[in-house]
């Protein structure tokens, strides 16, 4: 099943040259991440809400530890 993601938004850490990622959400709560250079035609990584929370938590922890 292919999920439809809406409300795509770019990362706050995006570079002005367009090298960034976008995050969207499906109706079932799944979070999708895609590369903006693919203009919506490339693959989308999918995370459950719990996986996404763990991913973001780990990134934030790394920022604190760095």
Provide a descriptive summary of the structure in words.
Residues 1-12 have a biased composition (Basic residues). It comes from Actinomadura miaoliensis. Residues 7-60 form the DUF397 domain. It holds the Pfam family DUF397. InterPro entries: DUF397 (IPR007278). The protein is an alpha+beta fold. The protein has one domain. It has one helix and four strands, in the order E-E-E-E-H. The protein has one helix at residues 49-65, and strands at 5-10, 21-26, 31-35, 45-47. It has a four-stranded antiparallel beta sheet. A hairpin with a 4-residue loop joins strand 2 and strand 3. The chain is flat and about 35 Å long. The mean pLDDT is 85.
What number is the mean pLDDT? 85
Tell me the number of strands: 4
Bin the strand percentage: 25-35%
Largest sheet: 4 strands, antiparallel
Unreliable stretches (pLDDT < 50, length at least 5) are none
- Report helical residue fraction: 25-40%
- Tally of domains: 1
Shape: flat
Q: Give the helix tally.
A: 1
* Distance linking N and C termini: 39 Å
Secondary structure category: alpha+beta
Radius of gyration: 13 Å
Within the largest sheet, what's the order of strands? Answer: 1-2-3-4
SSE pattern, N- to C-terminal: EEEEH
